[in-house]
TrEMBL record:
Protein name: Cobyric acid synthase
CDD domains: GATase1_CobQ (cd01750)
Pathway: Cofactor biosynthesis; adenosylcobalamin biosynthesis
Active site as annotated: 321 (nucleophile), 406
Biased composition (Polar residues): 486-497
Gene expressing this chain: cobQ
Species this protein is from: Mycobacterium numidiamassiliense
Keywords in alphabetical order: Cobalamin biosynthesis, Glutamine amidotransferase
PANTHER family given in the database record: COBYRIC ACID SYNTHASE, DETHIOBIOTIN SYNTHETASE
Function: Catalyzes amidations at positions B, D, E, and G on adenosylcobyrinic A,C-diamide. NH(2) groups are provided by glutamine, and one molecule of ATP is hydrogenolyzed for each amidation.
Pfam families: CbiA, GATase_3
Domain CobB/CobQ-like glutamine amidotransferase residues, every copy: 242-414
Domain CobQ/CobB/MinD/ParA nucleotide binding as annotated: residue spans: 2-215
A GO molecular-function annotation: ABC-type vitamin B12 transporter activity
Gene3D superfamilies: 3.40.50.880, P-loop containing nucleotide triphosphate hydrolases (3.40.50.300)
Length: 497
């Protein structure tokens, strides 16, 4: 979010800026204009900079398929499926790709804002790091640590992050930004002053917590943290429309439901329990990076009965990409899970067969959207939901809808018409769709809102000053504990002190 705001802030000042994330780990991805696949966060950051999404902004993408394996996407194309141990073998080759892409961007743009990945203090992973201090050291980049104070313990976190780094890495840490602060900043100021005295590094700004920011969650962690999507506006009519989106373990492109949440009177909740679906008017099965595994999870959680019962009562169900595949009669997967033929939920009389070649496609007219999937619809006896270029791009059976398209609901006229039918099928006769909701404009408004927050609460001149010349060489920290004290603390793990 901070990188997106900086990109928009610089672009508004006519500075040619580009985002860069050397390596992302996310199942929220988009198809680029050059036919590849990158993390959705970098696509949004590119939009903030006034650029079309390209693979160069995120050359390495890891898409987790299980707790131990990830699909490795290099320069937009699937290259391999790797474990953490396997990934070490690719490190040198990937580092060269990252270096080349960043070097080219720095020649073309006035500024390149590089987003890290998680915490730079994961010192057990430092040897293979491509996106944090490994990138900063290789390219001699100044680094700002952004800390989420809403989680608590931030001052210790910032100090400790710097302290555990190698001296050469520490030297590149220019300063800090505090994110998501609630309350009076004056109460935090003494701590920031002490942090400066202890580390020799300034805090460039304290960004306030803003409830209205919902922009494109990067991964499922955000889905877990926020049960309600966005801040729902009151309905235009007499009734709310309640949407239950299934929080799959390997959810992908969870941002599809954000378009629904933009509509006044539409309450979108993430659920993982059958009881939470009881009062839903619409159930959404989103995309998944592990269709067969997540289908088994639905059975284990007892959600299958809730979904099937909802559909058989004539209430609407929507499946998007992997979610649509689960709604079909049969899934044959020798690619992603290796499970062979698996029974789906049978709510759509259609079959899915996984292909080793991933479909990556953008659509622009008359509807916009994009496809990212291995599973292919090979048979369907159902009616077409909608057509593009005289080809069916979605299927429906009564009030059950399915499509491989992501971003379909961003099309305002299409979404309004469909939601009107959903409300009718759900018996919500008092629900009225607004006629002026513009999802694309809402997303752009979010980017401007983030930029405005930075302009108001960040020492922008000091941050932009880091773009000029080499990084400031900050002091090396050593532990403030004497050896005897360190020995004592090592025996205090269970002590409530």
């Amino acid at each position: 979010m901070v990188v997106a705001g900086l990109c928009r802030l610089l672009a508004r000042n006519r500075i040619r800026v580009a985002p860069f994330k050397a390596q992302n780990m996310s199942n929220n991805s988009v198809v680029t204009v050059d036919g590849g696949e990158i993390g959705r966060a970098q696509a949004i950051q590119a939009r903030a900079a006034g650029l079309a999404p390209r693979v160069r902004f995120n050359p390495i993408l890891l898409k987790p398929g299980s707790d131990r394996t990830s699909q490795l996407v290099i320069k937009g194309q699937v290259a391999d499926s790797v474990t953490a141990a396997d990934y070490v073998k690719h490190r040198d080759r990937l580092a060269a790709i990252v270096s080349d892409e960043l070097s080219c961007l720095r020649k073309e743009f006035d500024a390149v804002i590089c987003e890290g990945a998680g915490s730079p203090a994961e010192i057990n992973l430092r040897a293979t790091d491509l996106a944090n201090m490994g990138l900063a050291r290789a390219a001699n980049l100044p680094v700002i640590l952004v800390g989420d104070i809403d989680r608590g313990g931030l001052l210790a976190h910032l100090f400790g992050t710097v302290a555990v780094l190698e001296p050469e890495d520490q030297a590149l840490i220019a300063g800090f930004v505090v994110n998501k602060f609630r309350g009076d900043p004056a109460l935090l100021e003494p701590g920031l002053r002490q942090l400066l005295e202890m580390t020799g590094r300034p805090t460039y700004g304290v960004l306030p917590y803003a409830d209205e920011l919902w922009l494109d969650a990067e991964d499922s962690l955000s889905v877990v943290a926020h049960r309600v999507v966005g801040t729902p506006a009151p309905p235009c009519g007499d009734e709310w429309l309640k949407v239950a989106a299934i929080r799959l373990p390997r959810i992908s492109n969870s941002t599809d439901v954000e378009a629904l949440a933009c509509e006044p009177g539409v309450l979108v909740r993430w659920i993982a329990d059958p009881a939470d679906a009881a009062d839903a008017d619409l159930i959404v099965l989103p995309g998944s990076k592990a269709t067969v595994a997540d289908l088994a999870w639905l059975h284990d959680r007892g959600l299958v009965a809730a979904i099937v019962g909802h559909a058989r009562a004539g209430k609407p169900v929507l499946g998007i990409c992997g979610g649509m595949q689960m709604l079909c009669r049969r899934i044959t997967d020798t690619v992603e899970s290796g499970s062979g033929e698996v029974a789906g939920l049978g709510l759509l009389d259609a079959d899915i067969v996984f292909s080793r070649v991933k479909t990556l496609r953008n659509w622009h007219r008359p509807l916009s959207g994009y496809e990212i999937h291995h599973g292919q619809l090979t048979r369907s006896s159902e009616a077409a939901w909608f057509d593009v270029d005289a080809e069916p791009q979605g299927v429906r059976s009564g009030a059950v809808f399915g499509t491989h398209w992501h971003g379909l609901l961003d099309n305002d006229d299409f979404r309004r018409a469909w939601l009107t039918g959903v409300a009718e099928a759900a018996g919500r006769t008092g629900f009225t769709v607004a006629d002026d909701t513009d999802v694309v404009a809402r997303r752009d408004g979010q980017l401007d809102r983030i930029a405005d927050l930075l302009a108001a609460h960040l020492d922008v001149d000091a941050v932009l000053g880091l773009l000029d010349g080499p990084p400031p060489r900050r002091p090396h920290l050593v532990s403030r504990l004497r050896p005897a004290q360190r020995a004592q603390t090592s025996h205090c793990q269970a002590d409530p002190l």
